[in-house]
Structure formats: C-alpha cells, structure tokens
C-alpha cells in the first residue's frame, strides 16, 4: 500500500490510475480484448492457419511454427494476468494473493521473428494476430508495472529504486 504524509501529519493513500483501472469496471474492455484475441488465435491456428501454413515456403514454414509457439505462449501469459486481475476485481482474490500468483506470469516480451527475411511471407492474418498480441502484451506489461512496480531482475533489493519510489510517493508523482 502506498502512503504519503500531508504536512499536518495525516497519512493519505496515493491513488494510481492504472490500479484503479485494473480494479474497476473499466478493466472489462481490455479483459474482453485479451480473451477475444485468445479465441481468434486458437480458431485461426486450428483452422485457416493450417491451410495457410501449407502454402508458404519452407523457411517461412519454420518461422511460422516458431512464431505460433511464441504467439500462444504470449497469449497464455497475458490471459493469466488478465484472469488474475479479474479475480481481484471481483473480490475472489486479495491483492496479496494476486501478487503471489502473478510472479508466475511473464510479461517481459519473448521476442519475435519480425526481423526474419521470411516474415513478410507469413500469412497476413497470422501476422495481424502476432502484432495484436505483441501490442496487448505491451499494454498489459505497462499496466502491471504501474500497479505493482518494476520487478527486480535478480530479486535483490534496490536501495536507489526504493528511494525513488519513496520520493514519488511523497510527492505524488
């Protein structure tokens, strides 16, 4: 919980807009977008994607297979995060429970094959799904950082980061 102290000594809670979004009804559109993208991707990969993949070169086919795995992994991570936030929003989980479960979710960008010479050969519908998933992952990662802060890469405390956080909290930045 983030607190600041007013000049007369009363503690107040600093409100983060991203946190309010994730724990409010305004969260529903991003949740719906994520779940719709998961459904669209599954339908494409099981349907038209199979047909489309047979019509591309061997190099593009290899890239398609790799990108398909990255796409599904990315969407599973995003969906996991969204489901955790929805559970908290609906009162099924406390923020502490969400934070404990959230450590299993990776939103750090798993890379992609957009710089491959075969990328343009990939089916347009597939590339659209990949690009939408990357953009959604970035938005969710930004929300995550706004709500929960930046995770420590090595897990150790960062005294400078902690001081910066205290300063931002104190001055409501």
Descriptive overview:
63% of the residues lie in helices and 3% in strands. It has 173 residues and is mainly alpha-helical. It has one domain (17-151): Helicase, Ruva Protein, domain 3. Strands 1-2 form a two-stranded antiparallel ribbon. A hairpin with a 5-residue loop joins strand 1 (3-5) and strand 2. The chain starts with a strand and ends with a helix. Residues 1-8 and 10-18 have low confidence and may be disordered. This is DUF1465 family protein. Pfam families: DUF1465 (PF07323).
How do the strands and helices of this protein lay out in sequence?
Layout: E1 3-5, E2 11-13, H1 17-22, H2 28-46, H3 48-54, H4 58-89, H5 95-102, H6 124-148, H7 159-170
Antiparallel strand pairs: 1-2
Helix pairs in contact: 2-4, 2-6, 4-5, 4-6
InterPro entries: AraC-like_sf, DUF1465
Protein name: DUF1465 family protein
Organism: Aureimonas flava
Summarize it.
It comes from Aureimonas flava. Helices cover 63% and strands 3% of the residues. The protein has 173 residues and is mainly α.
CATH class: Mainly Alpha
Low-confidence sequence ranges: 1-8, 10-18
| Total individual domains | 1
Shape: elongated
How large is the count of helical segments? 7
Indicate the CATH topology. Helicase, Ruva Protein, domain 3
| CATH-level-4 superfamily name | Protein of unknown function DUF1465
First-last Cα distance = 15 Å
The level of helicity is 55-70%
